[in-house]
């Protein structure tokens, strides 16, 4: 079964075509600058060389038409006819409380996703545009929504509730939902496969560290807590997001600076995090360069704060689960940032972490154990593969539909 995985952002569409169930990648790429001057599609040719195809891509439907045209093209294509694409899997950021698993898309599912727009106003609308575009372009192919929030729906109420008037939870659904669910699901499961642990019994702490960042406690294959909340702002210090913040600080700033709710939202989402601390960049590579090579004190402060926040969540989740078997790093920073991994693990010896500094520095973005043999808690790196999780769920839910129709 050929499955097309789509991840539609506000001005971009990431795509991957996989042959399931063996998960053989047939094609991948990204459309960027949708609706803007200089829009382009980036992919690879049959020899693996990078290809940039420019065009007028005014909306998501045109972007998806462009993707389908490239997949079918004589020069870059991997299918002869579009009906060879058996199903489409969509990344959908927010499914609220309605979805505890991925779902075959129909009008009722679309209606529930639309209800969640207030919870993810920047993400769910383009996700929906991608779905509706594919319904027009490949109407016979089953489509599946895979939600960032679904994996965390196993959290108990005492972990996801906020201490606000209960009526506000009932009225608006204000609670912790968590994000990066497909990533936490994949790397926790993959870590157990590598280590030979029983996923249904293992206690895993997963650290997805990138421009956005979250930590999750996965106990017996289920998320029991996670650092992001109603929105992706809560939890870790991120590239431009503040993470955990005293609410009184925000109201204090709003009063002193005489700023609106929208401006305050921009402040905590776009101008805070390591960018706000350093005034230099949201990219950890730039921050490390400033700290290690130029002795920039604010850059060093940002690194110390970043590592410390992650370490606090690891400690909290180890206590919450009554122990931990493995700590897993993933995401752009988690997979490539050896200094971050070392900074986070420094001081965790009391938990049974026997960190291997030499191995930690010796690789980038590989599956690798970075603790010494005999370490009571294993620390490792597992590159994430969210597209594979989307393809697996799409295959699982579409297989029965396709077999009935055939």
In a nutshell, what does this entry contain?
With 406 residues, the protein is α/β, with parallel strands linked by helices. Helices cover 40% and strands 19% of the residues.
Describe the structure.
This protein has 406 residues and is α/β, with parallel strands linked by helices. It is 40% helix and 19% strand. The strands form 2 sheets. It has an 8-stranded mixed sheet, with helices on both faces. It has a 6-stranded mixed sheet with strand order 11-10-9-12-14-13, sandwiched between helices. Strand 2 and strand 3 (24-32) form a beta hairpin. Helix 6 crosses helix 15 (386-405) and helix 10 (284-294) packs across helix 11. It is globular. The mean pLDDT is 95.
Described by its quaternary structure, the protein is: single chain
Write down the Rg: 22 Å
Q: Tell me how many strands there are.
A: 14
Q: How far is it from the N-terminal to the C-terminal residue, by CA?
A: 13 Å
Strand order of the largest sheet: 5-4-3-2-1-6-8-7
- Average per-residue pLDDT, rounded, comes to 95
Helix content: 40-55%
Uncertain stretches: none
Percentage of residues in DSSP E strands:
15-25%
| Helix/strand order, N-terminal first | EEEEEHEEHHEHHHEEEHHHHHEHHHEEH
* Largest sheet: number of strands, sense, barrel closure: 8 strands, mixed
Structural class, by secondary structure, is: alpha/beta
Note the overall shape. globular
Number of helices: 15
């Amino acid at each position: 079964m050929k499955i097309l995985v789509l991840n539609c952002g506000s001005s971009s569409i990431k795509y991957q075509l996989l042959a399931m169930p063996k998960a053989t990648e047939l094609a991948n790429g990204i459309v960027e600058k949708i609706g803007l001057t200089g829009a382009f599609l980036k992919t690879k040719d049959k020899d693996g060389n990078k290809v940039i195809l420019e065009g007028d891509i005014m909306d998501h439907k045109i972007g998806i038409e462009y993707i389908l045209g490239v997949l079918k093209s004589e020069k870059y294509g991997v299918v002869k006819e579009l009906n060879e694409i058996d199903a489409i899997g969509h990344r959908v950021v927010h499914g609220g409380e309605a979805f505890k698993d991925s779902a075959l898309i129909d009008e009722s599912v679309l209606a529930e996703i639309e209800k969640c727009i207030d919870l993810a106003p920047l993400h769910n609308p383009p996700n929906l545009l991608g779905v509706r575009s594919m319904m027009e372009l490949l109407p016979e192919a089953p489509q599946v929504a895979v939600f960032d929030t679904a994996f965390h729906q196993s959290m108990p109420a005492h972990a996801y509730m906020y201490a606000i008037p209960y009526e506000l939870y009932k009225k608006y659904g204000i609670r912790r939902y968590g994000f990066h669910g497909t990533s936490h699901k994949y790397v926790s499961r993959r870590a157990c496969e590598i280590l030979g642990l029983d996923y249904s019994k293992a206690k895993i702490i997963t650290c997805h560290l990138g421009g956005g960042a979250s930590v999750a406690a996965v106990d017996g294959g289920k998320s029991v807590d996670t650092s992001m909340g109603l929105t992706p702002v809560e939890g870790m210090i991120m590239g431009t997001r503040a993470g955990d913040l005293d609410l009184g600080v925000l109201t204090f700033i709003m009063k002193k600076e005489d700023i609106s709710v929208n401006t305050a939202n921009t402040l905590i989402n776009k101008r805070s995090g390591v960018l706000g601390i350093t005034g230099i960049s949201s990219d950890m590579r730039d921050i490390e360069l400033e700290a290690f090579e130029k002795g920039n004190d604010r850059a060093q402060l940002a690194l110390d704060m970043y590592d410390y926040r992650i370490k606090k969540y690891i400690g909290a989740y180890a206590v919450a689960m009554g122990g931990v078997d493995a700590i897993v790093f993933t995401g752009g920073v988690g997979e490539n940032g050896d200094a971050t991994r070392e900074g986070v693990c420094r001081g965790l010896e009391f938990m049974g972490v026997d960190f291997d500094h030499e191995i930690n520095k010796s690789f980038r973005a590989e599956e690798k154990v970075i603790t010494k043999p005999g370490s009571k808690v294993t620390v490792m790196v597992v590159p994430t593969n969210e597209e594979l999780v989307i393809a697996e769920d799409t295959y699982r839910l579409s297989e029965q539909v396709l077999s009935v129709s055939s």
